[in-house]
Write a structure and sequence with these properties.
The protein has 536 residues and is mostly beta strands. Helix content is 10%, strand content 31%. The radius of gyration is 23 Å and the shape is globular.
């Protein structure tokens, strides 16, 4: 069989492109513009260059060009995480009106304290502050907050047509035994009630038009026309787990988002694309149509999906799910933007023109998806920079330079988030700092296991010296000192997951690693030295 014409064109595109080598990482300069953020979530740049960053705590932080200090831009009264309550609630989304220079409107997505819902509102941002009295309430998304529910999405973005997009997560407890959350008798563990429920706003990307008066209109082309029984007309894409970040190609209007993957197999991070409204399959399928089983062990049929959950209030017969643009092993993907060439000083080179940038929160790396003129994927390339990042959580381009908000080196109430700017110049010569990773202080950086952990998800929950979600490696070393039997059981625990030894927060399974890889990681952990030189 001869290759298709599209395949030949893609091969020619890649072959021609590879005649030009990727830019030297040393030519990318990373500047720390501000630091000290607490659980930063999303950011937006205003026309005058100021950057607004919302923190999960409810605070709005303002960075002004030429200043090394952050100012306070106001605060929303939000619900925040308790032990097993409202785990990902807070001030979680922000964007600016396309005509902000004239109207000073900001759009904020936040968790109400007085009732169990997230609210999308429009505010006026005046004299460097949110005017709380100006609030126009646009939309509310009822949520469940008990039983360790997670996945709230919250990303906001405007398309080139002036329509506003909002991502929402499945609002489900992901820690139960089945790989897919479909336990109907525990509604918080049933994503059928949200993601694949056509009459529910959760597990979706919503698309609306906001009028100057602050009213919501439904544009043409959403998934369900207004008036369709058992559906919500705001839905643009449906069947999503946690579309944590979204972006619109400002030249074409195509929607892109990153999906955070489940811990158990089958699993995989998704980078999704929607040129038109559609359905994407969660909680029945994932990545390249890998299917889950129902609670009786029978595999779902992707071509004949039905939502028969007693918690479903929408339609029963579901559309055939679309496949993702790209997928990779479980971690935590963060979408960036499609880069369009700029001639501004510091702009990325033409090598990256029409490439979609995405990052990984756990592994702190960046990659580009090279797109052809029809936005088909033709290649995926590493974007290498001589800098150690701390969990990128939101990223965008402005005048060709890349801006990054880092979450920081923990999980909750993290206080070392940073705002970065990455610019390109042939004259830059930024060298790598081998000691720049604070997560592995006290470990042998040359051990294979240490290197492996820096490339996987381990360091998102564990650090060498400090407790994050799980215990520090120093604590693990002390606990298993001389315990040969316990050490032997660690391989199985890492591979299959577990709970109870260090508390009630489950450790996810890591079945993507071989026994030998896990053994090398454990060996590196057990050789961790306490900071200050004391050997455990």
């Amino acid at each position: 069989m001869f290759p298709s014409m599209r395949y030949l064109i893609a091969c020619l595109f890649v072959s021609t492109h590879l005649l030009h080598a990727a830019p030297d990482p040393a030519h990318f300069r990373v500047e720390v513009l501000a630091e000290g953020f607490i659980d930063p979530q999303e950011m937006v740049m205003l026309p005058d260059g100021r950057i607004l960053i919302c923190q999960r705590t409810g605070n709005l932080r303002v960075w002004t060009p030429g200043s090394d200090k952050l100012t306070e831009g106001g605060s929303l009264n939000v619900e925040v995480a308790g032990k097993n309550y409202a785990r990902e609630c807070g001030f979680i989304g922000i964007t600016a009106d396309p005509d902000f220079a004239k109207n000073n409107w900001l759009y904020c997505y936040y968790s109400l304290k007085e009732n169990s819902a997230h609210r999308l509102s429009r505010f006026t941002f005046k004299d460097g502050k949110l005017d709380l009295a100006s609030e126009k309430k646009l939309l509310e998304v009822p949520t469940d907050r008990e039983d360790s529910t997670c996945h709230e999405g919250g990303s906001l973005a405007f398309g080139p047509d002036g329509l506003l997009y909002l991502s929402t997560g499945d609002n489900t407890n992901p820690f139960s035994k089945p790989a897919t959350p479909i336990e109907e008798d525990k509604k918080e563990r049933d994503a059928q009630r949200s993601s694949s429920n056509s009459n529910d706003l959760r597990g979706k990307v919503l698309r609306i038009r906001v009028t100057p008066e602050g009213k919501v209109e439904i544009p043409k082309g959403n998934l369900f026309p207004p008036g369709t029984p058992k559906t919500r007309p705001e839905i643009y894409t449906m069947g999503l787990r946690n579309p944590y970040r979204i972006t619109l190609n400002q030249k074409t209007g195509t929607l892109y988002w990153s999906e955070v993957a489940p811990d158990k197999k089958p699993t995989g991070e998704e980078i999704n694309q929607a040129k038109t409204a559609g359905y994407y399959g969660w909680p029945y399928v994932i990545t390249d149509t890998k299917v889950f089983n129902d609670l009786k062990g029978k595999a779902f049929d992707p071509k004949n999906l039905k939502n028969t959950s007693k918690n479903n209030t929408g339609i029963t017969k579901l559309p055939v799910p679309r496949e993702p643009l790209h997928f990779y092993n479980r971690s935590c993907s963060i979408i960036g933007e499609v880069y369009h060439m700029s001639n501004a000083p510091g702009a990325f080179p033409a090598y990256y023109d029409n490439c979609l940038l995405f990052a990984d929160w756990n592994r702190s790396w960046f990659k580009f998806i090279r797109l052809d003129k029809e936005e088909n994927k033709v290649a995926v390339e590493d974007f290498k920079v001589n800098f150690k990042f701390r969990k990128p959580i939101d990223i965008f381009f402005n005048q060709g330079a890349l801006y990054v908000i880092e979450y920081g080196t923990g999980w909750y109430n993290v206080k070392n988030g940073r705002l970065l700017k990455i610019s390109y110049s042939q004259s830059n010569n930024q060298q790598a700092d081998a000691s720049a990773d604070p997560r592995i202080v006290g470990m042998d950086a040359k051990m294979p296991g240490t290197t492996a952990m820096q490339k996987t998800t381990c360091l998102s929950c564990h650090h060498a010296q400090d407790k994050v979600v799980g215990p520090s490696f120093v604590e693990i070393t002390e606990k298993y000192k001389g315990d040969t039997k316990g050490i032997q059981g660690l391989v199985k625990k890492v591979k299959e997951g577990g709970v109870g030894v260090w508390g009630q927060q489950p450790m996810p399974a890591h079945g993507m690693h071989t026994d030998d890889e896990i053994k090398s990681m454990i060996d590196a952990i057990l050789k961790t030295q306490k900071a200050g030189g004391h050997k455990k």
